[in-house]
Amino acid sequence: MSNIPTDLKYTEEHEWIFVEDSLGKIGITDHAQEELGDVVYVELPEVGDKIVKGEPFGSVESVKAASDLFAPVSGTVVEINEALIERPELVNERPYDDGWMIVVEVEDESELDDLLTPAEYKKLVEGE
Amino acid sequence: MLKRTPLYEEHLKLGAKMVDFAGFEMPIQYSSIIDEHMAVRTKSGIFDVSHMGEILVKGENAGDFLNGILTNNIHKIKEDQVQYTIMTYDNGGTVDDLMVYKLSLNHYLLVVNAANKDKDFEHIKSLAPADVVVEDVSDDYGLIAIQGPESAGFIKELFGEIQLKPFNFRTIEFDSDSLILSRTGYTGGEGFEVYGSLEMTRKLFCKAVDFGVTPCGLGARDTLRFEAGLPLYGHELGPDITPVEAGLSRFIDLSKPFKGRDVLRTQSEQRDRRRLIGLKLLDRGVPRPDYPVYYDGKQVGKVTSGGFAPYVKEYLAMALVKIPLDDANDKLFEIEIRGKKHRAEKVSTNFLKG
């Protein structure tokens, strides 16, 4: 059974976001990394880029397939996880921790209301 | 209804992720494709390849008949030897690539790709003279591949000390059943393949896993063969790709007649034709089949296989391109990956050995 931390919000495309002081840290879920298999490359935006809720902001590639990363909220990228360039496998090993992808300055925190709660995300995963 | 190999239950017990492959329910991975890949490069791994097709060809003229439909010269191998060869159409395109086992003077076992087995059988049968018997025996054989630098340890544990050169095989009596032990594989390294009854295959697979050989799925089978630059039908070979274009001329004997020879001879003398090259990405990115390849700014072909090679730790591709041969090919290659051009350098397709 995949791990679904209770302090995060989720997208239907299997990203998570953790928001504190208007900064949102974003990554992909344990379920997503499990489905993808070994991650071999992560393409991320650059610091200063704008991302738009619901639109791709990068991609994650496993041995088997490439998947777009979808923005849970709109905002400006303030930090990217440089460690993933050399060690993309961190996404598999610690998806909620060292495997995070970007931090954005959230434009409109009300956008978080549309995201899935842990309970709703759990239901989505179990229904797949 | 999908077919199952004799190892289906074992795969489930080992927690494999199963996929539909060529009509069979096969394990794609047990733990992680990269871990399985590394086990084969550094220790040993075992693959269920029972889905492969086996076709028997026998009769006094079996050898001459096969020599007329296969590119390699079958008369170069002796009994108990194996040969890699390609079956071609009149237009030089590829029917399949396969291994031929010379069981005895007039008795050959052809091991073919699972997805092509029915097509191959029809093709061979339709061309065979009346005195050559062609028989599909795929359902009688299980097949496992034990590969990696430590694979000989398990073989020795099972059968004792056995001297076997690469591309040689031996029929062995084991547990009052007979099997074929062959020093062959599809990983670019040391290894063995064992053909046996369904029950024998199950027994040997379980013994190997108990011995500590890592079970490996089709995912690692593909990354391993790719890293070693070995062709895969449907990618580097196909009805519209000849073995000359795929760089397999050393498996083609133009001195004997066979289907498609004239086309292959003409091609092999051509400077200006498609050819398979290796590319190493200079900008990080994952090249995948059908991605466009550029040379000096112009599109010259596309990727046939690509990805991250776990052992050599590079992003690599094999690509079928039309570029002038006697050029040093020192201009810039690029691969378009998801809309963005990535710089690449031409390298040998044998990424493992360089």
Task: Describe it.
The complex is a heterodimer of chains A (about 130) and B (about 350). Chain A has about 130 residues and is an alpha+beta fold. Chain A has a single domain (about 10-110), classed as Beta Barrel (OB fold (Dihydrolipoamide Acetyltransferase, E2P)). Helices cover about 20% and strands about 35% of the residues of chain A. Chain A contains four helices and nine strands, in the order βββαβββββααβα. Chain A has helices at about 30-35, 85, 90-95, 120-125, and strands at about 10, 15-20, 25-30, 40-45, 50, 55-60, 65-70, 75-80, 100-105. In chain A, strands 1-2-3-9-8-5 form a six-stranded antiparallel β-sheet. In chain A, strands 4-6-7 form a three-stranded antiparallel β-sheet. The mean pLDDT of chain A is about 95. Chain B is α+β, with helices and mostly antiparallel strands and about 350 residues long. Chain B folds into three domains: about 10-50 and about 140-225, 2-Layer Sandwich (Gyrase A, domain 2); about 55-135, Alpha-Beta Plaits (2-Layer Sandwich), CATH 3.30.70; about 270-345, Elongation Factor Tu (Ef-tu), domain 3. Helices cover about 20% and strands about 35% of the residues of chain B. Chain B is built from eight helices and 19 strands. Chain B has helices spanning about 10-15, 35-40, 60-65, 115-125, 150-160, 200-210, 220-225, 260-270, and strands at about 15-20, 25-30, 45-50, 55-60, 80-90, 95-105, 105-110, 135, 140-145, 170-175, 175-180, 190-195, 215, 275-280, 290-295, 300-310, 315-320, 335, 340-345. In chain B, the strands form four sheets. A six-stranded mixed β-sheet of chain B has the order 10-11-12-9-3-13, with helices on both faces. Chain B has a six-stranded antiparallel barrel with strand order 14-17-16-15-18-19. A five-stranded antiparallel β-sheet of chain B has the order 5-6-7-4-8. The interface between A and B is medium-sized, with 13 and 15 residues.
